[in-house]
Specification:
Helix content: 40-55%
CATH class of the largest domain: Alpha Beta
Largest sheet: 4 strands, parallel
Number of helices: 9
InterPro entries: ClpP/crotonase-like_dom_sf, Pept_S49_ser-pept_pro
Oligomer: single chain
GO cellular component, one term: membrane
Shape: globular
Protein name: Serine dehydrogenase proteinase
């Protein structure tokens, strides 16, 4: 809210994102607030990496600017650093194997006993929530004028969550793959002036903060900022 205060909202928002991700609840809240302030006139700019929940926030924008070296990342949700889709797959595999061979219960018991009560349900809810959020944001903004927005939004959301093809939550998804999937992506190198400005800002932040205790900073073009540090 500090960074948005007194900004000229009629000009829209260029949102520069450099993040490893975060929680879906916070992401949903941020997207909702930005839409309240700027409507759909929000463009995401990714100078380097924008992973996980950062990718979800980028999907809430009207377009995404990526450089040749930039990337988004898979959106499959994690609960306490445990992949929700992996838990569901493992649980189903255990059920199949035990059904075929009762002796396999001795193999699976120590694994399944680590899951606390209601954890499977939490994983299922997180998966559904993530897919619904990305699908709805794409339909309501980036793909809003596309006659086939319903199908395309669902396919993009599933691609971003596809653990089987992505293999890892840390996989880097680059410009060509994202454009092919149907996201509206602009290439940073197509505008020399914009490229110079974006990378200058990015490098200034990286060089200034990389050897400090800063873990998060939100700042606007007027220098109004909120920074969070960690105690070493």
């Amino acid at each position: 809210m500090m960074a948005i205060h007194k900004m000229d909202r009629k000009k829209g928002l260029d949102l520069i994102l450099h993040t490893p991700g975060g929680g879906i609840a916070a992401t949903e809240s941020i997207a909702h607030y930005l839409h309240q302030m700027f409507g759909n006139n929000i463009r995401a700019i990714v100078p380097q990496i924008c992973m996980s929940a950062g990718t979800m926030l980028a999907c809430a924008c009207k377009s995404i600017v990526l450089a040749k070296h930039s990337n988004l990342g898979p959106t499959d949700p994690h609960i306490s650093n445990i992949p929700a889709l992996g838990v569901i797959e493992e649980f189903k595999r255990a059920a199949r194997e035990i059904k075929r061979d009762q002796s396999k219960i001795n193999v699976w018991r120590p694994i399944l006993s680590q899951y606390r009560p209601t954890f499977i349900g939490q994983c299922e809810d997180a998966i559904k929530w993530t897919e619904e959020f990305v699908t709805n944001e794409l339909k309501n903004n980036m793909l809003s004028i596309d006659s086939d927005k319903e199908r395309k939004a669902k396919e993009i959301a599933k691609m971003l969550m596809d653990k089987k093809n992505n293999k890892s939550h840390g996989r880097h998804l680059h410009l060509d793959k994202l454009k092919k999937a149907g996201l509206i992506v602009e290439q940073l190198e197509d505008d020399d002036n914009l490229q110079d400005l974006v990378l200058t800002v990015h490098h200034c932040y990286m060089h200034t903060l990389m050897n400090t205790t800063a873990i998060k900073i939100i700042e606007n073009h007027n220098g109004v900022a909120l920074a969070k540090t960690t105690i070493q």
